[in-house]
Amino acid sequence: MPRLLLQRDAELAMLVHRLGQVRSGTGAVIVVEGPAGIGKSSLLAAAGTGAAAAGLRVLPAWGGPLERDAGWGIARQLFAPLRESGEWDTLAVGAAAPARRALDDEGATQAPAGDAMQASAHGLTWLTCGLAARAATLLLVDDVHWADAPSLRWLGQLTRRMSGLPLGILCAVRSGEPPAEPDLLAELLAAAGAPVRPAPLGPEAVRSIVLDRLPTAGPAFTRACHGATAGNPFLLGALLDHLAAERVEPSEEVAAGLSDFGPDQVARAVDRQLARLPDGTADLARAFAVLGRGAPLRQARDLTGLDHPRALRLADRLRSAGLLEETIEGYALVHPLVAAALYNGLPPGERALWHGRAARMLVTERAGPETVALHLLRTEPAGEPGTVEALSTASDRAWHRGAPQNAATFLLRALAEGAIEAYAEADLLCRLGLVTAEQVKPESYPLLARAVDCATDPDQRAAITLAGARALGMAGFHDDALRLCHQILEPGPALGPASPPVGSASPAVGPASPAVDPVIPAAGPASPAVGPASLAAGPASPADPAVLDRIEAELVCSAWLDATTEADARARTLRHPWPGASPMWGVHHGHLSIAEARPAAETAAILSSVLDADIDSLLATVLKFALVAAEELDIVRALCDGLIDQVRPRGWMTALAHGSFLRAHALVPAGRVRDAVPDARFAFEFKLANPPAPGLVWTLFPLVEALTEADDLSGADAALAVAESRGWGLPDHPAAVSAKPARPGTGQPGSAQPGSGQPGSGQSGSGQSGSGQPGSGWAASGRAGVAPGGLRAGQLRTGLLLERRARLRLAQHRPADAHADLIAAAATWRALDIRHPGLAAWRVDDCFALAALGDPPAARRLAEEHLDLAARVGLPGPRAAGLRALARTVTPAEAVPLLTQAAHLLSTSPMRLEHARVLTDLGAALRRANQRTAARAPLTQALDLAEQGGMRLIARRARQELLAAGGRPRRTVVSGPGALTPAEQRVAVLAALGHSNKQIADQLYVTRRTVETHLTHIFQKLSVTKRAQLATSLPDR
From the centroid of its chain, how far is CA 490? Predict the structure, then answer.
């Protein structure tokens, strides 16, 4: 048995058992934890050797102090053998293709904010799953506490995909060592079972090792060795090496003088050992400490200036002394403690000089920019343009790969170099601001603001502002986006406090002692580009009006979202008359037309005129929301389909989640609830796991709506609870919020009173909030109008979510809670000055809440208000919804003609959800008017519509009403297309189109085993035996 594996039978048995589970198809994360020198690496090596012998594919990697700044360093090590094999071109395809972004040296293209990281991680996950599908696979990562952030994030994500796969992650982590990325490491370790903790060697094991080295040692000496090293295998070996080198005899006198032997003693012992070796040996050892694990001998030779024969001889001496070992990649010092002793033994200034020489050498070897930058990070700032340029290039490469944290590190060090011209400094600050915005860090705005202030060229100022405003908006920092725009536009409305300052303008990075020799020679001026896409290169003239126009349009996108800035958005939009302005302003005029409840024909004319324009960023989202309100549901779905089809194969998960949430928003009113649920759930779950946090609320409202209509009321409540646990929930009973007074002649009610209070006053007929709890909710939360976690009254997302939760409460027969939500929603819509009855539809639902609470007169007044607005707009959906609400306030006989008219309005409308509701209410009214036979036709039609689209809440009620009317509804579908779950439906459609199981798995981001399971159920439900039969068994899509 190898010496360092003495007394390790129990630990090896545990590892063998867990690796056996991996081989049998149970994915697992296995952790070996312990202090430095306890034998973790030896255990991992033994386990890896055993796993390979048992038929597992073993992919090794290791972390290190230098490598933790190398984006995707661990991932690149793991897959390096595969990239050089014949398998690579068949592995990195389909859903795994985006892995090339992280692993390949060239070819990473620009992706939307945040999606380079997501694409790389997504591709690596599917690459790993594909490997495991071919053969049981083990990822073996030593010293994972030093792993780089992108690789750790990916490994944490991978743990959620390992179930049912013969895939294992075996890693070693040093206890007592502060990890480089504690949160990411904690996520990975949380997926593991109980760690394997190697125990210190006992007295007998130490005695055996000592006697093997020093046969004359007595009991007192072996006990002293055990006490001095606490049974740590590496320290014991180092102690014995030291004693042998010093020619110390194992006497009792020596034993009495042995004291604690730890890392400090190891460092002194290494120094003494090197002092006895030939000249140049110590420098060669230090070169390997500076270069890191796996460095080739030629690099250490060149770094020390040795000739090749002498370097070979000195490397042999280091190996003989037990300080150096040969690896597959090159050479490595035998233990991190030895490497740390040699590295930390260098004074800070000298260390910086060593790294500077290493950087110059690597440039000569044409090493990758990031490899060079790892050493530049550890040099002393000296005002060298070449260093700034090299770090800037490395940052771009890291950013393209999807390693924004590493890109930011390089940029910070570039800024610290000093002696940078204003144009280049503004460029660096802008890049740093953009990359920190991508990570949703609040210091992004101060950095971008400083970049604008620093820029002396009007073109650059405008380009920085435009790129920064878009990045801040996508990160959810809408107030900061507004502030940035106002820096070069005229002053806008007062806003709240800015994000916290970022601190030092040029933070010092690297050693404190001076090391001012030029590190990298300058190859030319620093690039004027802003970010990887050269965003500053656009404008051709000072203060280009087109760019300023775009900046203002971006400002308005964020300004629409909050009541404190809505008036500014309105005023700016009106200053750009339509038609005549650019298509960007057409989008805003379309939103304004919706907000003001103008006739549908006017809104449609505006929106149709901009559909073919190149609209992106938040403008595209504003456009899609306006189109949904205008009942152009098929157009929105087609736009979202196009976006999803474009970004899915690229692994752009943020864009995919965004497209999915918007598509769900359009699918629900179209009555396609079965399709909306998976879209909304995917978007919500993605935002749960990825920033920005405000994005969670935008994905929450369509999910709550879809689950409510799918009759999954507990699921909708669970989604709300999850958001609340993340700090983005609504209070249980929102109370009154302040609102702007209604404008004369706008149709916005300023005095209509459900019960005895105004909408938005929070008062019911009893003079209390709808919950019966005066002073509850936001008004009592410590910050008036602010929900826990940051939701504010007067925000568009707040109004949308309140209405959806109110519908859930109505479905749960909780009308008082629904009324309270709707009162708060009304105040939000009024504060935003949004009157469109299709977007601000609170009156319809509140009619039903008030009727259930015993206040039909107040319900009728709201229904009439809604109908007045709906008549002005002229869309079928709001008009039919208003008629349905009014029907709730009259007798069944009076309701029948109202609902008949509503059903006629919707007969050719895309608003199938409302159509199914109206038909159900019509059938119920006919039944209550003693027209049972007549009631069956609309109820049967409602049931068919509802079951076809997965509108189970409506289907349940329609079925009950049909039974009460004497009808015989067919049983709940258990076979046929209607019985397919949303996930089965998607698999069935793709299979019918001829996609293979692997292609389906790639598109839906599931495993092939999951696809096979779905197909088994699909074949059973559709009563087919061949894939070719699917196309004729599914309804037209």
Answer: 35
What pLDDT does residue 473 have?
A: 87
Kindly state the tokens that stand for 898.
């109202």
The phi, psi pair for 658, rounded to 5°, reads -65, -45
- Would you state the pLDDT for residue 522? 44
Query: Token digits for 27?
Result: 């994915």
pLDDT on residue 789: 44
Mean pLDDT across the stretch 199-220? 91
pLDDT band at 734 (very low <50, low <70, confident <90, very high): low
More confidently predicted of 610 and 766: 610
Q: Where are the beta strands (DSSP E) in 458-531?
A: none
Report the CATH fold assignment for 3-190: Rossmann fold (3.40.50)
- Sign of torsion, CA 683 161 88 116? positive
* pLDDT tens figures, 945-983: 999 999 999 999 999 999 999 998 876 665 777 778 778
- Domain 890-970 class in CATH: mainly alpha
* pLDDT single digits (tens) 239-279: 998 888 888 888 888 888 788 888 888 899 999 999 999 99
1020 residue type, one letter: Q
Contacts of 663 (CB under 8 A, 6+ apart): 636, 637, 640, 641, 644, 676, 679
The C-alpha atoms of residue 32 and residue 952 are separated, in whole angstroms, by: 50
- Closest C-alpha among 338, 328, 237 to residue 5: 237
| Fold for the domain defined by 381-537 | 1.25.40
Amino acid at 63: G
pTM confidence score:
0.82
- The mean per-residue pLDDT over the stretch 742-747 comes to 38
Question: Residue 792: CB partners within 8 Å, gap ≥ 6?
Answer: 562, 785, 786, 798
- Is the sign of the CA dihedral 363, 364, 366, 367 positive or negative? negative
Q: What is the DSSP letter of 112?
A: S
Beta-bridged to residue 795, according to DSSP, are 562
Q: Domain 978-1033: give its CATH architecture.
A: Orthogonal Bundle (1.10)
Query: Which of 319, 322, 300 is CA-nearest to residue 311?
Result: 300
Report the C-alpha gap between 103 and 99 in whole angstroms: 6
- Chain-centroid distance, C-alpha 958: 40
885: confidence class by pLDDT, cuts 50, 70, 90: very high
Question: Contact, 1014 vs 987, CB < 8 A?
Answer: yes
**Cβ 785 vs Cβ 794: under 8 Å:** yes
Length, in residues, of the chain: 1037
Residues 6+ apart with CB under 8 A from 279: none
Q: How far apart are CA 871 and CA 873, in angstroms?
A: 5
- The torsion angles phi and psi of 184, rounded to 5 degrees, stand at -70, -40
What letter represents residue 60's amino acid? P
CB 795 within 8 A of CB 561: yes
Contact 624, 636 (CB under 8 A): yes
* φ/ψ of residue 394, rounded to 5: -65, -35
Counting Cα atoms < 13 Å in the Cβ hemisphere of 396 gives: 23
Q: In angstroms, what CA-CA distances link 659 with 109, 602, 632?
A: 21, 27, 16
What are phi and psi for residue 140, nearest 5 degrees? -115, 110
Under the banding of pLDDT at 50, 70 and 90, the label for residue 915 is: very high
pLDDT tens string 378-388? 999 999 999 99
Mean pLDDT of 692-702: 85
DSSP state of 196: B
- DSSP sequence for 884-949: HHHHTTS-HHHHHHHHHHHHHHTTT-S-HHHHHHHHHHHHHHHHHTT-HHHHHHHHHHHHHHHHHH
The H or E element containing residue 837 is none
234-238, 253-257, 686-690, 1012-1016, range with the lowest pLDDT:
253-257
User: DSSP code of 795?
Assistant: B
CA distance 19 to 325: 28
* Dihedral sign computed on CA atoms, order 410, 416, 419, 425: positive
Q: 219, exposed or middle or buried, with CB in 10 Å at 0-12, 13-18, 19+?
A: exposed
Higher pLDDT, 76 or 1030: 76
